[in-house]
Amino acid sequence: MEIKQIFLKFFEERGHKIIPSAPIIPENDPTCLFNVAGMQPLVPYFKGQPHPEGKRLVDVQKCFRTNDLDEVGDSTHHTFFEMLGNWSLGDYFKTESITWSFDLLTKHFNIPVEKLAVTVFKGNNLVPADNEAAQIWEGLGISKDRIAFLDEENNWWPNMESLGPCGPDTEIFYWRSEKEIPKVFNPDDENWVEIWNNVFMQYYHKQDGTFEVLDNKNIDTGLGVERTTAILEGFTDNYKSSIWKDVISKIEEISGLSYNNLEYTRSMRIIADHIRAIVMIAGDNAGVKPSNTDQGYVLRRLIRRTIRYAKKLNIDINSDWEQELAKLIIEKFKGYYKELELNKQVILDVLKNEKNKFNKTLEKGLREFEKLVQNINGSIINKDDSFKLYDTYGFPIELTEELANERGLKVDIKGFEEKFIEHQEKSRAGANQKFKGGLASIGEMEIKYHTATHLLNAALKNVLGSHVHQKGSNITAERMRFDFSHDTKMTDEEKQKVEELVNEYIKMAIPVEKFEMKKQEAIEMGAEAMFIEKYGDIVNVYKIGDVSLELCGGPHVSNTKELGIFKIKKEEASSAGVRRIKAILM
Predict the structure, then answer these.
(1) Of 64, 207, 422, 512, whose CB has the highest number of CB atoms within 10 Å?
(2) Residues 6+ apart with CB under 8 A from 3
(3) Contact 455/544 with Cβ under 8 angstroms?
(4) Model confidence pLDDT, tens digit, residues 280-298
(5) CA–CA separation, 281 vs 77, rounded Å?
(6) What's the pTM value of the predicted model, to 2 decimals?
(7) What is the DSSP-derived secondary structure letter of residue 449?
(8) What are the residues whose beta carbons fall under 8 Å from the beta carbon of 196, sequence distance 6 or more?
(9) Residue 431 pLDDT more than 80?
């Protein structure tokens, strides 16, 4: 039985309901391009909204982060990863959370107690030390020497500045080395690897700067599948574990090269990691396509990096190598994520089309390089030119160097690295905003816009036809964006009819009712859902009179009259067969 199944079964036996993974692209969270942690899709429930499946939940969540993109290629970093999590929404707290983590690791994953160590929050002038967590660990058999008290940088979530629900956490570390285990735990020793994090949401950080103890305390835990699998299988290289073994073997087969040859190891790891991430993003029902903005930009960058490293392995780029790898990933993960099988052809087409485009870009880059060489003053390619080749044409610096050497030229590598670091810092600054995740704002206006998407969906069906289905939405306090299935541009008359119909629904002052029921029952009633597979067995159904019946996580207003006046600002293409409406409430 694999780790995911053991984890889910363990917590199911302790009263937790297994819930499906949310899509990798967050719904209605403009602060974040991707779900970056297991807790992110559950934010409304941590803020007090009741979950239809109850107070104890467990899942495997698809996650994606770009923060470590440049580190991918070593033995432990990944872009896409799976996060195991168990959650308590105002139910059990520290004793159960810590005890269950300890029992699962030592009795079910058979990790010796002497290979474990933990960190807890040491306290500051605002919040006391988490002695309670330390005492629970000691009671379970973790010696005082293996319990480290650290500051808020290490053991507080999300951070001391963030307002709203927050609290200390305890991180569990594993000794990942053949060396003798030291008696005293030093968290800075790289042989101690963090495997599990238990967050205790017990405070509310108020506007006045004080921390108030919450009546309903929450538990949020995260255990990375990739790292834990490698640990339990005895590997210090994640890519040698059972998760990656067949993917690496397929890359070896396609390239005719060996993973154990250090000249090729890094390239193979990058291809393996990126191809899996590409499949997960392109296979998401949100319908992301390669582009120059947001999720589409990340997808494009991953595909192009994969192609660059395939070239380094002398793989014939014009062969179907990327299709073979993608099919392998789809087959491996479709049992957990049904949308991969459903969107299989979309994934394969995205990869093939982008590969063909990039091959042309590479050709342009080679022509650019030739022009550069002809006009060069001296024998050095400067930092601006080498960075342009990298940034505009996707040339890795190694390729520029190789081409330069053939012509007896040198490249200003130090200057390139300075430009690269400067570019990286700018990207990270932007990424910190777009990938921060966490307890995103769900204010009064966001709730109104969320409700308005239901009315817009209903009006579009009425005006354009029953083929209309929601394909995605993005909401801020200022506006709403709504993607829907429709092949042609809407006429002015159609837009006007839709707008009038939504405003008519608002003026009708229809109550918004919420029901809890079995998913199958809701489907039989005719309730619509954007991503039916993401919902568990028990669902929330929101009914707005005879206008709308949808499965939804919420939150919503109690009556349509609260929405004000609805105004369409723009209607445009989003992707093939998908249109987008931008609208405001006044």
Answers:
(1) 64
(2) 84, 109, 225, 228, 229, 232
(3) yes
(4) 999 998 888 888 778 888 8
(5) 18
(6) 0.75
(7) H
(8) 101, 105, 171, 172, 221, 222, 223, 228
(9) no
DSSP 339-379: HHHHTHHHHHHHHHHHHHHHHHHHHHHHHHHHHHHHT-SSS
R_g of the chain, CA atoms, integer Å: 26
**Which amino acid would we find at residue 451?**
T
Amino acid identity at 293: T
CB within 8 A of 547, min separation 6: which ones? Answer: 454, 455, 458, 505, 510
Q: In this predicted structure, which of 1-5, 7-11, 315-319, 502-506 has the lowest mean pLDDT?
A: 1-5
Long-range Cβ contacts of 258-264 (<8 Å, 24+ apart) = 264/312, 264/313
Own/partner pairs, 214-217, CB within 8 angstroms, 24+ separation: 214/165, 215/90, 216/48, 216/89, 216/90, 217/90, 217/93, 217/167
Q: How far apart are CA 197 and CA 217, in angstroms?
A: 17
pLDDT in tens, 147-191: 999 999 999 998 888 888 899 999 999 998 889 999 999 999 989
Omega before residue 44 within 30° of 0, cis: no
Question: Over the range 238-270, which residues count as b (16 or more CB within 10 Å of their CB) and which as e?
Answer: bbbbebbeebbebbbebbebebeeeebbebbbb
Six-digit token string for 231: 């640990």
